Amino acid sequence: MVGIILICLTILSFITYYLYLSYYISPIPVVESVSINNDNKLMINFKLDEKRYRNKIYYIVKNDNITPTINDKWILSKNNSILIDIDKNIYYVYLKNEDDKIIRVNNTENLGKITNININKEKVYIAINGTYNVSSSFDGIGKIQDEVHWYSENEDIAKVDENGKITGVKKGTTKVYAEIMNEKASVDVVVTNLITVRPKNYNSKKSYLPCGKYSKEENDLLDEILKDRINDAGYKTRAGAVEAARFLALEFPYKIRYFSENGRGSTNGVDGEGRYYHVGLYLHNSRYSGIKKKLAGPKTWGCSLYSRPSHGYRSNGLDCSGFVSWVLLNGGFDVGDIGAGLAPHKDLTDYGVRTKFNANIVKSGKVKVGDLLSSGGVQGGHIAIIVGEDDKYYYVAESLWTPPNVAVVIIPYSKKDLFKRYYYVMLMDSYYKEDGNLTKLWY
């Protein structure tokens, strides 16, 4: 009898112990998945023995791999899952059951995702053999790799190096991509023969613009490129005005001839005859729609037009003040279609602070790229804009009427004697107000 009782007690003990193990001891969660979900949250799913009585699971998130203690601040999980808001840090996640058994969730510290990637340009325009530097920025969460992989959709048209430097190969359009981990962004690349690689020195040997060289589509594209260059430099800034002058003299492949004007908007209202007071280039007859009054024209740049002051036919182009006022207008400054001289009425020397140009003002450092220069008097004169500077020279963009370059050119003048040619400098800080992405030189 005693033996039977002992056997029954033993069996009962085993049953009790089994029931204790099966239902009362808190279960250890089994992690099924660790991922970053579509809402960019770290998501952990685990399973439990739902028959257990004590099946609450807590979690804690750390930025280091030091195991937490039971006295740390643990958070109760719900529905056998965890959603964690994360940023760019590395995350270590731990789970704890009601018996204070702590386990570490594997691989959370290795998860990462790029949430957004951008390239600083939507479209770039490059000459054949020219280059353009683009850059990327991105946002990410978790452990991210910040190495950018650049590649071109068509390397026969444009190539790109590991730093985002794009090189034009041949005429055409393609895309260049920046890829980081799971995300990529692209920039449209237009490689064109309508512009040239900017030389370090102005190319005085390039040809004069012939008549009817460009189609409407080509004129439109050149206008896009000009606008893009100015926007990069800073529209309505000093750099934007400088960029308009640099583009016409350096990237545009032809010289624009000097043409003695047949009038201007501020005098007899004539437009497009030695002056062109509009945004963009005057290369196709579709631009005639903007011409409100004519005298001998309309004729685009490069086409023969009668010049009343010169008493003969010349290729249409820009006179000195026509060039400078066009530059300022395209840079974002509507000065009006006005002249160069120190006249009683308003002219280009009335903008900025007109200052006697001499050795002292050169030494002062107040003269900057983008300032205007004048050699004029009351009866008229000459106006120009500084588009470059180094230790020895100012580089002056101007439309000249004397050989060998009867055209818009860039001339280097020694700082030691430039003031012998130009009597005044217009310090333009008060007018431009902002410098933008100003550079002393264009290369």
What's a concise summary of this model?
It contains six helices and 24 strands.
Structure, explained:
The chain has 443 residues and is α+β, with helices and mostly antiparallel strands. The protein has three domains: 23-110, Immunoglobulin-like (Sandwich); 113-192, Sandwich (Immunoglobulin-like); 216-432, endopeptidase fold (from Nostoc punctiforme), CATH 3.90.1720. It contains six helices and 24 strands. The chain has helices spanning 2-24, 216-233, 238-251, 320-331, 359-364, 429-432; strands at 30-36, 41-47, 58-62, 75-76, 81-85, 92-96, 102-105, 112-119, 123-127, 131-133, 136-142, 149-152, 158-160, 165-168, 172-180, 183-192, 304-307, 312-315, 353-356, 372-374, 383-389, 393-399, 408-414, 424-427. It has a six-stranded antiparallel β-sheet. A four-stranded antiparallel β-sheet has the order 4-3-6-7, with no helix packed on it. Helix 2 crosses helix 3 and helix 3 (238-251) crosses helix 4 (320-331). It starts with a helix and ends in an 11-residue tail after the last helix. The relative contact order is 0.09. The model has no long low-confidence stretch (mean pLDDT 93).
